[in-house]
Amino acid sequence: MKLSxxxxxxxxxxxxDAITASHVLMLRSGMVRMLSAxxxxxxxxxxxxxxxxxxxxxxxxxxxxxxxFHLPALNPREIWEETNRVAAFGDTMFHIKNxxxxxxxxxxxxxxxxxxxxxxxxxxxEMPQIWxxxxxxxxxxxxxxxxxxxxxxxxxxxxxxxxxSWENLDKSYALHDKAYRNIFNRCGIKYFIVGASSGAxxxxxxxxxxxxxxxxxxxxxxxxxxxxAANVEVATSVVAPIARDAVSEELKEISTPxxxxxxxxxxxxxxxxxxxxxxxxxxxxxxxxxxLITGNEEVNETKLEKLLGGSIRPAHPEELKEIxxxxxGSIGPVGYKGRIIADNKLKGRNNxxxxxxxxxxxLGGVDFTRDIKNIEYxxxxxxxxxxxCPNCGEKLGxxxxxxxxxxxxxxTKYSAAMGATFLDENGKDNPIIMGSYxxxxxxxxxxxxxxxxxxxxxxxxxxxAPYHIQLLGLNMKKQEVAEESEKIxxxxxxxxxxxxxxxxxxxxxxxxxxxxxxxxMPLQVIVGDKKLKEQKVEVxxxxxxxxxxxxxxxxxxxxxEYFEKN
RNA sequence: CGGGGUGUAGCGCAGCCCGGUAGCGCGCUUCGUUCGGGACGAAGAGGCCGUAGGUUCGAAUCCUAUCACCCCGACCA
Length: 566
Description:
Blueprint: H1 21-28, E1 32-36, E2 39-42, H2 44-63, E3 67-68, E4 74-76, H3 77-81, H4 85-89, E5 94-98, E6 101-105, H5 110-120, E7 129-138, E8 153-163, H6 166-187, E9 192-195, E10 206-212, E11 218-222, E12 229-231, E13 252-255, H7 262-269, E14 277-284, E15 287-294, H8 301-308, E16 312-314, H9 317-324, E17 339-343, E18 352-355, E19 361-366, H10 368-371, E20 375-378, E21 397-411, H11 413-418, E22 421-423, E23 429-431, E24 433-440, H12 441-451, E25 453-454, E26 457-458, E27 469-473, H13 479-494, E28 499-502, H14 509-519, E29 523-527, H15 529-532, E30 536-541, E31 547-551, H16 555-565
This protein binds one RNA strand through residues 9, 11-19, 34, 36-37, 85, 88-89, 91-92, 107-108, 110, 139, 141-143, 145, 150, 198-201, 217, 406, 436, 438, 472, 474-475, 477-478, 507-515, 517, 526, 528-531, 538.
């Protein structure tokens, strides 16, 4: 492709609305443009990357015997009623009403695949089947963000497996697990895997393929050493217990006017936050529960709900006064009448500070074993970085990350609801056992860029690069430069490389260099009249910035050798 | 949906408090000079100041409503 003819609108300045690196670079390199919030057009350069990603996905899916479908995005509403997911999706689902017919735009395709399975798969002999498609999904996200990472319309590879037994589902699941690793490895993405319960989807096993990113939406705890990874909502950690002081001081009331937060308390009393027991009141089953955690740590509401076996909510400010006799900031366990749960880290401690259940007063010298009755202990806090991995004891990292792919064992949720059954060896009717496997294709692109860029632009590796080589003719008004670069262009094309040829006559050298670094093809072949006089051209490796002077007649060989190794 | 912010030329922004001829940089067009890290000069083109009401002799500027977009939160098969 000649740049003089191409529609690749690069931007020198950073667009005001883009914050995350991948979003900025995708806009600046002329790969995407926003049409509306969370709705993006892929321009030619960006679409080439999408096609590279989907090609890799296709190859790996086909390699495990999966078969590609092309399904409608426009679906009759009734089919989604069969599984009650119109209600489940709520406002996230786009609805179209036309004349007297109700349609929805598919946010995923379990129902449609199950519909086809229901009509055709009737015997255990017809399974296993793995069906997939790569297509646009529609979800009316409440808040689209980070460019293409969270959009209202996005390209997704979704696959569904149909098996006659749970054992066979395990096999289909394992095939996908392997295929996903291959896909992300080939794309050059550094990922990790979080095992999680599949929650609302129903079913038993699931794995999320995650990428560490500041633009991420999930916070996870991850151990580099053993691979332990869990969403902080469920993550646990090993922390060194804080020992009980040898001597318990007497309980004492301290006047603390206008002291509300732990920080203020620590500053006022000149104590460390680990000496504080912070109180939080939640309402569970219409009854208040006092939760105690150390210092400035946070209550993990998900863990707490799991512990209690039901949903909780923080108590309202007016309720606090009624329950404890004090406002938030002065609440504490001593004298509290209801149920008390303290985090494990506080177990058996003494000489702590806490609220006095009396505004503007705190208590010192609190001894959990002496002063508080009926105290329960549990893990109710949010894991923090540097704490010990529950598996191997190494220090955990805690960071945000993006979910790129998710595989899970659906089981019979959809097949049962929709009556997709088969006859087994005994002639008995059973619901088909399903798995569901998704990859966000544009997210792969965005995450790759998040992981592979520098201050100049994107750094593509060959697998996803829109072109293998950017060929720069530095001064195209000079005949020898124009002729020689044109010749190299044709030779590179003839050798099977995808080449973006910057043949613009009106751009100066510096301009072309900046554009090339921004777009980030793996190799730049630079043709300028100075080196041409010595029968040489320059080759630059984008990733390392290394430059090599190469004899003109050896350029093709040089490029070949490079791509064989990289 | 709650909180905060921004809408002025293709892009980035100033002007708004304190109402009175709509500006700057980049980009674009033409000509000339340059030509290996986002060149220089000269001459141009381009804007209902998001939209709708209102106040006023007069509104980009003040008031009201509304829409769009961004950020934080809630939500997230």
